[in-house]
Amino acid sequence: MSFAHSPLPYDMTALEPHISKETLEYHWGKHHKAYVDKLNAALENNAKLSGASLEEVIKSSEGGVYNNAAQVWNHAFYWQCLSGNGGGQPSEGHFLTALHDGFGSFEAFKETFSQKSATLFGSGWTFLVKNTQSGALEILSEGNAGCPLVHDHFVPLLTCDVWEHAYYVDYRNARPKYIEAFWKLVNWSFVESNYAAA
Ligand code: MN
After folding, report:
1. Global pTM exceeds 0.90
2. Which H or E element spans position 154?
3. Alpha-carbon distance 136 to 21, whole Å?
4. Is 195 within 8 Å of 102 (Cβ atoms)?
5. From ligand 1's centre to the CA of 34, what distance in Å?
6. How close is the Cα of 24 to the center of ligand 1, in Å?
7. What separation, in Å, do the N-terminal and C-terminal C-alpha atoms of the chain show?
8. Distance 33 CA to ligand 1 centre (A)
C-alpha cells in the first residue's frame, strides 16, 4: 500500500492573483509530490508500519519517515484551508465565539497568527488548533515538519505554510506580503467544520 498525492481541491489558477499557478505547479506539483514519493519509498520495506494510516505513521515515527509523513499531511491540510472563494471572516457561530474568547477579537487573532507566521525562524508552519484538554484555541509555531497530530490533545483547525517555497515565486523574500494574501484565501467554512468536529 502506498500513500497518494492528494489532488488539489481546486484548479491551478483558482488562488490567483494571491497565489499563482506557477506557485501551485511547484508547491503542490513538485514539493508536495516529493514528500509523498519519499515517504512511500521509505516505507517500502518497513514491516512495522505496513498498513498504518498516515496519522499512525506520523505518531509513531521519527527522522526522515516522520518528516515526510508530516509534510504529506500538512500540505493536504493546507490546500483545504485555502479557497479562491475564501477570505473575509468566519460566520457568526461557535467558532467565532471561541476566537473572541481566546484572542479578544477576530482582528486580534489575525494579528497574533500573522506575527507568529512572520517571525517563525526558518521553515515551518503556523497552526490554529483546539486544545481538547482545556477547550481553548491556541496558535502553534511549528518548525520544519512540525505537526500538531503528534499531540493527542490538539485538533488542527487552520494552517499557514511559511516555508519559502510557499511564497518565493510570488513574493520573493517578503513573507509578510504572502501572509496578507493568505488571509484573502482562507476557507473559513472548512475551518469552522474542523472546529465543529473537534
Ligand atoms: Mn510547503
Report:
1. yes
2. strand 154-161
3. 36
4. no
5. 11
6. 10
7. 29
8. 10
